[in-house]
Design a protein that fits this description.
This protein is 52% helix and 0% strand. With 94 residues, it is mostly helical. The termini are far apart.
């Protein structure tokens, strides 16, 4: 195997990639990144549904969630289920 440095690679990376590859036997030395921290997927069989709402409505839903010690998602799901139940007969007759 030819061990001469590639001048293009050396100039673009100041030789660091080549030196690392020679030292470790591979070019990528970074360890596998740990999963992102932050939001966890919802429990159970849930999927995300993105929509747009008036900012005041969003604020009021979030405030209600805090006051009721629940999540905005749970409030929105309850509201959607109630709306669907109220409109069930109207949509089934179409």
């Amino acid at each position: 195997m030819d061990r001469r440095p590639n001048p293009l690679l050396q100039s673009a990376t100041n030789g660091t990639v080549l030196e690392t590859a020679q030292r470790t036997g591979r070019a990528m030395t970074d360890a596998k990144r740990s999963p992102k921290k932050g939001r966890q997927p919802p429990p159970g069989d849930k999927r995300q549904f993105v929509t747009s709402l008036d900012p005041d409505v969003i604020r009021r839903i979030k405030q209600a969630a805090i006051g009721l010690d629940t999540t905005a998602s749970e409030i929105m799901e309850e509201a959607a289920r109630e709306w669907l139940e109220r409109h069930k007969s109207k949509s089934s007759s179409s």
